[in-house]
Design goal:
Length: 194
């Protein structure tokens, strides 16, 4: 059963989510990568705050184009590897009251602690589905730092409908990424010794 969540998301709703839950997101979210996270921690810009309060950050470097009316359209919107944001993510979650982070590959202990403390989750988006995920982006509401950061690193404020993700790190300290790593290491030891 899929859980439908509207953004902004309350802390109460996030705390009910568990690892393995399949979710469809609806509402406004923001793409942010390395430059954006660094900026959010070091300069704490006000322009992005309204979009992140009880909102969702998507680790994504989209492929975009302008349509005949001059409006931005997403062509591809696949997730990027989240581990690069580990030094910043917990601080960003707390500072901006972020309720969800989307990416691929999971994150580490500092982010897990931040999710638990502030009431947020890590959503995994399936890599390789960039074109399909772009179809779930219904409009580009705003773009910040495009000239300074370039297309992949800019803050894209987007509206999404039925954006499919899976909770792989919850607000209770559980991480499917840790579970997979532990079981894989155990299986490797069995294969080597056996």
């Amino acid at each position: 059963m899929k859980i439908k969540l509207d953004i902004p998301i309350s802390e109460e709703a996030v705390r009910q989510l568990k690892v393995g839950d399949q979710v469809e997101l609806n509402g406004i979210m923001v793409t942010a990568r390395d430059n954006g996270h660094k900026l959010m921690v070091e300069e704490r810009p006000d322009f992005i705050r309204p979009y992140l309060k009880e909102g969702v950050i998507y680790h994504c470097g989209p492929v975009v184009k302008k349509d005949e009316q001059g409006q931005w359209q997403f062509v591809a919107a696949g997730p990027t590897t989240s581990s690069r944001e580990e030094p910043y993510q917990a601080t960003v979650i707390g500072e901006y009251t972020v309720r969800g982070v989307i990416g691929k590959g999971g994150m580490k202990d500092r982010t897990i602690a931040g999710l638990k403390e502030h009431g947020a989750v890590y959503f995994h988006a399936v890599g390789g589905l960039g074109t399909l995920l772009a179809q779930r982006v219904t409009r580009v509401k705003e773009v910040f730092k495009l000239e300074e950061f370039g297309t992949p690193e800019a803050f894209w404020v987007i509206e999404v409908k039925d954006f499919p993700v899976v909770v792989t790190m919850d607000s209770h300290g559980h991480s499917i990424h840790d579970q997979v790593l532990t079981s894989s290491q155990q299986r490797l030891r069995e294969l080597i010794s056996g």
